[in-house]
Design a protein that fits this description.
Length: about 150
């Protein structure tokens, strides 16, 4: 019998375990989007208990840690495709988000973060004032105009 050997096979297998593959990523999968004045992030954490998830904020960095415990070693495994152990992911948020008001919920294996846009980053109208003739102050605010004598 002729066997072909591949010296990089073990290296590929190790890289897939550490870095993951497209079908089975090692890091927690994430979706992020902006919905009006809120930035929303969802992390897929199926099979992870709520008490093994931690969420930390330091300045503008949000760190999510989760742990899926190892399987009982006394069982004979037929397939073990789900990654086990501690997972961690960090998000660097822009200065336009309010990290003091982050809300988090966990339902159906999905961790959802809602991060509001900071008040100073929201669009707003600026009042323009001017003194025209006779010392009257005219202020224009958006579509309104008032004259103060």
């Amino acid at each position: 019998m002729l066997m072909r050997t591949d010296p990089f096979r073990e290296l590929d297998r190790f890289a897939q375990q550490v870095l993951g593959t497209a079908a089975r990523p090692a890091a927690m999968a994430m979706d992020a989007w902006r919905d009006g004045d809120t930035f929303e992030v969802e992390f897929d954490l199926p099979g992870v208990a709520l008490d093994s998830i931690s969420l930390d904020v330091e300045r503008n960095v949000v760190t999510v840690r989760a742990e899926r415990p190892a399987l009982d070693g006394s069982k004979e495994m037929l397939a073990a495709e789900r990654p086990r152990g501690v997972f961690s992911r960090q998000l660097v948020l822009g200065e336009n988000l309010d990290t003091e008001q982050i809300q988090a919920s966990y339902d159906g294996g999905v961790l959802t973060l809602r991060i509001p846009v900071a008040e100073q980053a929201k669009p707003r109208k600026i009042a323009i004032s001017s003194k025209e003739g006779g010392g009257q102050a005219i202020t224009k605010d958006g579509d309104r105009q008032s004259i103060n004598a």
